[in-house]
Amino acid sequence: MDTYTYRPNPRCGCGRCRMAGMMGPAVLVTLGTLFLIGEFSSFEFHRSWPVLLLVIGIVKLLQYTAPIDGHQQPQLYTAIPVAPPPPAGTATPAGNVPPQQGSSEGVHNV
User: pTM value?
Assistant: First the structure.
């Protein structure tokens, strides 16, 4: 069986990736509703906060059961390959040799 590791991708349009962005809005709407209910009724927030846990659980359940048909894995960024330094003892072109410290090479008197 082919193993498949799911990684969320914000640019993907599959159901699971779309549901990954729903936790924040769901928590904010639930908190706002609970505070509003607490303000206009005798049902206070310290007695209603378990509703928030239920909403988080429902959103997580929806995330894990959402289909991944058409899912696009995110691109992995790799390091740019760098050429290894030349082996010791090889000659370098004359134009690429830096001036020695203390020498007057490269100094022009005007």
Answer: 0.57
